[in-house]
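User: Structure please.
Assistant: Input sequence and predicted structure:
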Amino acid sequence: MTPEVREKICTGLAAGESLRSICLEEDMPAISTVMLAVVQDRDGFSEQYMQAREAGGFSHADRIIDTVDRVATGEFDPQSARAMLDGLKWAAERMAPKRHSQRQELNHTSSDGSMSPKGKELKDFYDE
């Protein structure tokens, strides 16, 4: 894969296109070739690919806003839009989980150590 092909793949992914549709274009490699390049990190492609996928998550989030606007104007049927929104939310959450996931990660530690457990270590508590 040439640098131009890698850039075209990443640009398409960042715009929210699927890898399948990108690879169907003329002069583009097969999906398996792209995925091997990602897994083998050929020429640093793995990081570029992951960044493009994350950007694609933001693209899907933008499409959610556009879809909601179209429902409000009556352009889209609410039931049809619901299916579209569910798919877009799923894609956005998977592609950019730190930004779009509904999961919340709670950190129960304090930076100054004032909330650290006293006495027995937590692992000792569970070993009893």
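DSSP finds seven helices and no strands in the chain.
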